[in-house]
Amino acid sequence: xxxxxxxxxxxxxxxxxxxxxxxxxxxxxxxxxxxxxxxxxxxxxxxxxxxxxxxxxxxxxxxxxxxxxxxxxxxxxxxxxxxxxxxxxxxxxxxxxxxxxxxxxxxxxxxxxxxxxxxxxxxxxxxxxxxxxxxxxxxxxxxxxxxxxxxxxxxxxxxxxxxxxxxxxxxxxxxxxxxxxxxxxxxxxxxxxxxxxxxxxxxxxxxxxxxxxxxxxxxxxx
Length: 222
Prior knowledge:
CATH class of the largest domain: Mainly Alpha
Distance between the termini: 97 Å
Low-confidence stretches: 7-31, 212-220
CATH topology of the largest domain: Substrate Binding Domain Of Dnak, Chain:A, Domain 2
Shape: elongated
Protein name: BAR domain-containing protein
């Protein structure tokens, strides 16, 4: 079967072979396909800024999903810390009661850090999406991308990791205040670590949230 569209254009031929139509590509169509492939090969000599931003945006979307999970994790952690502290109050052990109360405070601090990291990641994702719609010069492009990803996200993760290390370092330190004695009933022992644990956690709180501590001092002075 021969189908002719118009003069000057390629022809498409069909031939019967074993009961089915077999398409034979015409000369003009082969030329168009070859030109298209060459265009793809020589279109760009390397990756563009737009390609990099697309990859960063894809990564940021995964980070955004992770931040949502981290937020839920923080909520569950707060609830678990509260329940743990409530359980310890009923045990009649002054040391365990005190330390679990301080651990509750520390886990709340860590949950706040998780929420902060989650919020910062979300902001970076939104900024990147806005940035892609702007028409900026190359120098502004380079500066914006550098500040947004390589510096901004790095600072957020470094701050989070440092504060997390401080929080759980304090956690381990105050746990050592619990008397490790197996020959006596610790419920009747005198526990003297409450002041130490309270001051240690308060010191950590001031280092993690210095702006809140300064604000509290101003309220006391006023």
